[in-house]
Amino acid sequence: MANHSASHPAHVQHHFVDSDQQFESAKMGMWVFLVNEILFFGGLFCAYIVFRAWYPDLFSQAALELNKVWGGVNTVVLIGSSLTVAMAIRSAQKNQIRGLRINLLITIALACVFMVIKYFEYEHKLHLGIAPGMFWNPTPEVLAELSHPKANIFFGIYYMMTGVHGLHVLVGIGLMIWLYIRAGKGHFNSEYYTPVEITGLYWHLVDLIWIFLFPLLYLIE
Amino acid sequence: MAAAETNNMTTLQVKRFKPSENPTNTYLTDEKGVWAWMTTVDHKKIGLMYLASVAFFFAFAGFLAIALRTELWEPATNFIDADTYNKYFTLHGAMMVFFVLIPSIPAALGNFVLPMQLGAKDVAFPRLNLASFYIYVIGAIFTFISLAYNGFDTGWTFYTPYSSTGSTGVIWVTLGVFILGFSSILTGTNFITTIHKLRAPGITWDKLPLNIWALYATSIIQVLATPVLAITILLLAMENIMDIGIFDPAKGGDPVLYQHFFWFYSHPAVYIMIVPGFGIISEVISTFSKKTVFGYWAIALSSLAIAFIGFLVWGHHMFTSGQSAVATTVFSFLTFLVGIPTGIKIFNWIATLYKGSIDMKTPMLYVFIFLFLFSIGGFTGIMLGALSVDIHLHDTYYVVAHFHYVMMGGTLIALLAGLHYWWPKMTGKMYNETQGKIAAILVFIGFNMTFLPQFIMGAQGMPRRYYNYIDQFQPFHQTSTIGSYILGVAFLLILYYLVMSLIKGEQAPSNPWKSRALEWQSTSPPDFHNFAHTPVVINGPYDYHKPMEEFQLGLAVEHNGHGEHHEVETEETEKA
Amino acid sequence: MSEHNHEHHVATAKQLWLIGGALFVLTILTVVVSSIPIPAPFDIITALVIAFGKAYLVAAFFMGLYWDVKFNSMLLIGALVFFILMVTVTLLDTMYRQDVVPSF
């Protein structure tokens, strides 16, 4: 522990010895938080697994109502946004603030594309009466294909999983806008880019969750 | 002194910093006014704010308990009707669990003590720490809103389908608990990072105080279990708001799945409540025996073992719920395993007492009460874990008594031990020792009078949560009620002398118990930055055979004051 | 404590693009494989193997665990272990019940 009052750079909080300790603490704190996130989604995945083990035919039947192509496009969009976030962190590490802002903008744009596609998917399903819970009222044509008596449960799980995931995407968009503004004010440089790094970790986790949601929800038939 | 031979040894220039006995500048004088308190990021003030909130909710929920016991003085209606009774016991349980027991030791005492025991200036994320307090407050507000909507009477476990019928009160309280969970998660995240990254020079993993090990194990449980509660409660809220159907049998869902989800959190949660209590007991027992803790690693690692095994036993709450026989058998077997690390702790504490110079101050009195009550609570827990016995005892007063023996006789008594132990450090004032002892004895008598009869009537078949009972049980109920009044008086007495100590208590010395632990090597109350110097640790926290000077070292380079200079070697703290 | 002032690892742009490309290819692959009729347990296994492969790439390289301190990887693995515990122990009940959903 070196002299902790005189040589403190402005971004280091008083209770840390140096910039490195602060960065490593923040990153570890974020990883601990991601453990939370994994177990939070873990509950939903557990419900999914339990019901799927009970009613395998329900799941393959219901997956037909989900559009594989749009799901796939959304997967590619999210992976692309993960790539641009990684590039944004790289730009920050190399002190290229312009590159950082451009990459953040692309990420925000891709995240918005994801949400728009998600919106149209929801719209389409709600139109057919495939709605969560008490709004469950499928049209006769849908019912002909989706005859399983527990079909509402599958879509309960579907809406909870994609809904909670979508909320995370929205939070991510908010964080990214905040980073974009701060980057514009010159808050970040190669010495201090902790918020970019940990927001990046968060965003990759949102991507990771979707990597599992996509095959489990869309690709079972 | 050999020069650094391995590359993880560093040589530091240190000197002794003897804490002042009359500090003029402390964390209490540094920032003043309500606004400064409300926006502070100082872990000590946040700890005190938590302590005050916990005390408030304890008083509130305790008052409900007194009302319940009074109602049970005689069978049938006494002074509240059956519906109110249901709401009272639900509120008593939910508040005691979510607003008192879970934050009590980690968030109140832990927040205050943890950075000091590590020689850090604050927790790793001070602003998150403040946020966690406000999240706790918002959770509480939601619960009170629920009361305005006619309350909730589902029992603190919110079992479906009873809790999924769309009652507005249930929606508000579940959202309150959902929000509250984040407070717990943030505290856990903060503590894990702080313990890993902010230890003072010389504090290696084998020199961590056992309280830190306990808080570490607690934080791991908080981080792993609380998110599952969050998603469970969210699904339950959705069940209420729009019949999502996963847990509701009327919609094709499975209510037992809800119980799995709920207990996946709530069983580990009882270890969130009790494990930090173990930490306090280890600290107090060593200080008042003036002796090294017996079996340091056994106590430290058994905390982690409890944390891990605690995740595998949740199904013992569900033996009669329609769970499969396979799961029931496995859960029963695993439940017995939890007894092993807990037993290891008890035996090591007893061995620590052996041939120590035992000083029966108030905190130590509470430790003895803890050992007695918690052992009873633990053993009855093993009985309840046995399948055939549980079928008979399930949902009787036996379970109620067991739960109160571990949670109140364990956690709350440990909290009282810790509160009396650290009170001089937190406030800089000494409380009245005689009154403290009287109150401790009253708590002991009142507690046993309240809950011992409940074991007997439970074994005889008195079901829990019942508003009415047959005449046969009246003597037990009446003894229990009188006991609860004695408990109430004891807590009022504690409140009285603690408040009096604030008003006209004498100034506490920096180290009234002559402890070797690091938090006692600061002034009472501590400096705003905990220590005016950077502490350096060369001995374990329980090395009572070494002189006090060796526990008051700090880096010499920051100040060029007087005092002799030493050179010490410390193992470099791991910087992962 | 802070003797070693180590540099943060900076991934090269080429590395990142390669990982992105691999993830893209794996996504196509999983969609294509899903339309091939594979017998019951193996279709889900294939899908999960591909998903875990993608997850590994994201965690190791985008999230930088490959270059990071081991403790952060331990946290991720720990979270997965506890998730698996939760699922298997719950299945121990739900898969061995007399009735799928106990009738009330």
What does this structure look like?
The complex is a heterotrimer of chains A (221), B (576) and C (104). Chain A is mainly α. Chain A has a single domain (58-218), classed as Cytochrome c oxidase, subunit III, four-helix bundle (Four Helix Bundle (Hemerythrin (Met), subunit A)), CATH 1.20.120.80. Chain A has helices spanning 19-54, 56-63, 68-93, 97-127, 140-145, 151-184, 194-218. With 576 residues, chain B is mostly helical. Chain B has one domain (9-571): Cytochrome c oxidase-like, subunit I domain (Cytochrome C Oxidase, Chain A), CATH 1.20.210.10. Chain B has helices at residues 27-30, 34-38, 43-71, 82-118, 126-148, 168-197, 210-242, 255-287, 296-309, 325-353, 362-385, 387-393, 397-427, 433-459, 474-504, and strands at residues 9-16, 553-555, 565-571. Chain B has a 3-stranded antiparallel sheet with strand order 2-1-3, with no helix packed on it. In chain B, α4 (82-118) packs across α8, α6 runs antiparallel to α7 and α13 packs antiparallel against α14 (433-459). Mean pLDDT of chain B is 91; it is low at 1-7, 559-565 and 572-576. In chain C, 31% of the residues are buried. In chain C, α1 (13-35) runs antiparallel to α2. The longest helix of chain C has 25 residues, at 70-94. Chain C has helices spanning 13-35, 40-62, 70-94. Chain C is built from 3 helices and no strands. Classes of the chains: A mainly alpha (221), B mainly alpha (576), C mainly alpha (104). Chains B and C meet through α8 and α10 of B and α3 of C.
Sequence of strands across the biggest β-sheet of chain B: 2-1-3
* Through-space gap between termini of chain B: 28 Å
What's the architecture of chain B, going by CATH? Up-down Bundle
- Ranges of chain B where pLDDT stays below 50 over 5 or more residues in a row are 1-7, 559-565, 572-576
Structural class of chain C: mainly alpha
Question: What share of residues of chain C is helical?
Answer: 55-70%
Number of strands of chain B: 3
**Measured distance between first and last alpha carbons of chain C:** 62 Å
What order do the SSEs of chain C take from the amino end to the carboxyl end, as H and E?
A: HHH
What's the number of domains of chain C?
2
**How many structural domains in the coordinates of chain B?**
1
Number of strands of chain C: 0
Rg of chain C, Å, rounded? 20 Å
**Discrete helix count of chain B:** 15
Largest interface: A-C, 53 and 51 residues
